Amino acid sequence: MQALAVFCGSSQGAHPSYMKGAQVLGEQLAKRNITLIYGGSSIGLMGAVADSTLANGGKVIGVIPKFLQDKEIAHPNLSDLVIVDSMHERKHKMEELADGFIMLPGGCGTLEEFFEVFTWGQLGLHQKPIGILNIDHYFDLLISLITHMNEQQFLQDKFLKMALVSESPAELIQQFYTYTPPEVKTFLKRSQT
């Protein structure tokens, strides 16, 4: 586990616990010599996890589209900043650089990034662990929805364990070391429906 991509909000959120959780994750990454791969921003939870990783001696690689860099939100002190042309290219580059993914609280963009790598995992496009850092129970409703998808037979049983969940950054990272990816998604043929 050499590098982890972190998806999170570009705002601080309503509770100080979200910022604190991002900072603790940054400390844990640096402590374990795991490079942080993230969206390259200096603001919100994105900035907090990057600042904390750097402050604790860790390495941080930001991946940011040019149009966001031009808005002057790119972090100025990263180990490396990769500039890409589009949001799609950003996600592809982050997936390429990372050995796993962690989602912190965030909005629609954060969820979109999470579900894209989750779907890629189902389809066998990668076999990397995906974690939900459930700070202050932020993702309880999402976890319930994922369970509901399974109960309603839109998510196969084997994929329920694909999303690793913890309220503790250290515990979540530890789960990554023992992660076993599920078999590639199987599809029902019309004759089986």
TrEMBL record:
Transmembrane segments: none
This enzyme's EC code(s): 3.2.2.n1
This protein's name: Cytokinin riboside 5'-monophosphate phosphoribohydrolase
InterPro entries, per database record: LOG, LOG_fam
Family the entry assigns: Belongs to the LOG family.
The keyword Hydrolase is assigned to this record: yes
Keywords tagged on the record: Cytokinin biosynthesis, Hydrolase
